[in-house]
Amino acid sequence: QVQLVESGGGLVQAGGSLRLSCAASGASGVMFGLLAMGWYRQAPGREREFVATAGSGGVTSYADSVKGRFTISRDNAKKMVYLQMNNLKPEDTAIYYCQRGNYWGQGTQVTVSS
Questions:
Q1: pLDDT at residue 31 tops 80
Q2: Cα first-last separation, the chain
Q3: What is the pLDDT of residues 58-111, one digit of tens each?
Q4: Three-class SS of residue 68?
Q5: Which residues contact 46 (CB under 8 A, 6 or more apart)?
Q6: Cβ partners under 8 Å of residue 98, min gap 6
Q7: Cβ 32 vs Cβ 76: under 8 Å
Q8: Which of 17, 63, 57, 58 lies closest to 39 in space, CA to CA?
Q9: pLDDT at position 29, please?
Q10: What is the rounded distance in angstroms from the CA atom of residue 99 to the CA atom of residue 81?
Q11: Beta bridge partners of residue 37, listed in sequence order
Q12: Which residues contact 44 (CB under 8 A, 6 or more apart)?
């Protein structure tokens, strides 16, 4: 059973930065490194949407809306994945979820004020 726990959300003004973290448990370091890790978000009244993913080989991809502002990274030894968010905009306000295969974290709230 894999568990994912996000942290690092909060309230920030537009133009500010936040760094989200996701800690994984229930998988060995080797197994953790074999699967892609992703970040998704869900704003009020909207469906959950893809934000970024980091593959096992270090390949990353991003939603167009966050390209150039967000950076995903992972530390397989620590079983952690991060999302550095810069130049935040009010439309980035959402609950951010960590994802690995069929497993999801509980989410962390990010609120960007204008």
A1: no
A2: 40
A3: 799 999 999 999 999 999 889 999 999 999 999 999 999 999 999 999 999 999
A4: coil
A5: 94
A6: 4, 5, 6, 20, 22, 24, 37, 38, 39, 81, 104, 105
A7: yes
A8: 63
A9: 64
A10: 10
A11: 54
A12: none
For the stretch 42-58, pLDDT in tens is 999 999 999 999 998 87
Q: What is the Cα–Cα distance from 23 to 98, expressed in whole angstroms? A: 9
**Separation of alpha carbons 30 and 102, rounded Å:** 18
- Residue 113 near residue 11, CB atoms below 8 Å: yes
Contact assessment for residue 12 and residue 112, using Cβ atoms and an 8 Å cutoff = yes
Q: Tell me the two tokens of residue 57.
A: 């080989």
3-class SS of residue 76 = coil
Nearest to 40 by CA among 102, 88, 104: 104
Residue 23, Cβ density class (10 Å: 0-12 exposed, 13-18 middle, ≥19 buried): middle
Distance CA 73, CA 12 (A): 21
CA distance 89 to 70: 12
